[in-house]
From TrEMBL:
Gene3D superfamilies: Periplasmic binding protein-like II. InterPro entries: SBP, Sperm_putr-bd. This is Uncharacterized protein. GO terms for molecular function: polyamine binding. It comes from marine metagenome. Coiled coil: none annotated.
Length: 312
């Protein structure tokens, strides 16, 4: 079942809480595999490892030391979200490193697709914030299965010039405002989609909702559906529409705000009264990685963890 179908069935009441939680926790085991063709960023090279990551996180500025040492970036393939990545890898797509967020690590471990990472090979490991090294589910039986590299949040990016009434009333509710029908956007993702709706309706734990909370979330998604211009799979697509004024508000990661502000676009990034969603993402070493490329794999990880990458 495609993630779009899961969201649609939840919104229209054709999926129960039990079925939804099973689909969410399966994290793509039954998802339909999407074509890879247009998502390849760099031509394949037999010397480089393959990194499976998010759009915008593949840029050479984030692994400059690797480029300086080897002359070019590793092979890069882009996924829209971890459900897509999980489905492709389970279907046989082989990569060396993948960049999920922490909530996926225990599931990927149970699926047998990730291996422990030897942090002694990472010169920048001592500089990582200690708390981020021990996020629940990322250290299993004393072994490190995840290298944290990105810490951010999901919130509402909006145009204050187009929706001034929300400047002093920061709320996820803007994404349900019928006044802006056709000028709103949500991420095409179970986590950044359904969980946002759960936060909006006041679910105590969006990842383990009660029947009543699930019913409220379902109703909110059903109410929102006709208001949405599009569900974005590419953050740049959403950012371009926001810059052009086609969108008034959208779910966004904090880097989207930074990019548009740098371009001189009048945008604000909310601290919603219902609460924002924080996340930590990073890298996992895949079970079917190419052992002959381990040196480059660790060099890439170390480059990504560097101070220079953080400054960028």
């Amino acid at each position: 079942m495609k993630k779009e179908e899961i969201i649609e069935q939840l919104a229209t009441g054709r999926m129960s809480r039990r079925q939804f939680n099973r689909n969410l926790m399966a994290l793509g085991a039954t998802m339909v595999m999407m074509p890879m063709g247009s998502r390849m960023t760099h031509a394949a090279s037999g010397d480089h490892p393959t990194v499976f990551t998010w759009e915008g996180w593949e840029v050479p500025e984030l692994h400059a030391a690797y480029v300086a040492k080897y002359g070019s970036s590793p092979n890069i393939s882009i996924f829209a979200d971890e459900e897509e990545a999980f489905a492709k890898m389970r279907a046989g797509f082989k990569v060396d490193l993948t960049q999920p967020c922490t909530y996926k690590v225990p599931i990927w471990y149970d699926a047998g697709i990730i291996l422990p990472i030897d942090t002694s090979r990472l010169s920048n490991w001592p500089d990582i914030i200690p708390t981020l090294k021990n996020i629940p589910g990322t250290v299993i039986d004393g072994k490190q299965y995840f290298v944290p590299t990105d810490w951010g949040q999901t919130s509402v990016l909006y145009r204050p010039d187009l929706a001034p009434e929300y400047v002093n009333n920061e709320t996820w509710g803007i994404l349900w405002d019928p006044k802006y029908k056709g000028r709103l956007s949500m991420a095409d993702s179970l986590i950044d989609g359904v969980m946002v709706a759960a936060i909006y309706v006041g679910a105590k734990n969006p990842f383990n909702m009660t029947d009543a909370e699930m019913a409220k979330t379902r109703a909110a998604l059903k109410e929102q559906l006709p208001l949405i211009r599009f569900y974005w799979g590419s953050s740049s697509e959403m950012e371009q529409a926001m810059a052009a004024g086609e969108l008034v508000a959208a779910t966004s990661w904090n880097d989207g705000y930074a990019k548009l502000k740098k371009e001189g676009i009048n945008v604000k990034y909310m601290n919603p009264k219902e609460g924002a969603m924080t996340w930590v993402c990073g890298f996992c070493l895949m079970t079917d990685h190419d052992p002959s490329k381990l040196d480059r794999i660790y060099d890439y990880l170390d480059a990504y963890m560097s101070v220079e990458s953080g400054v960028y």
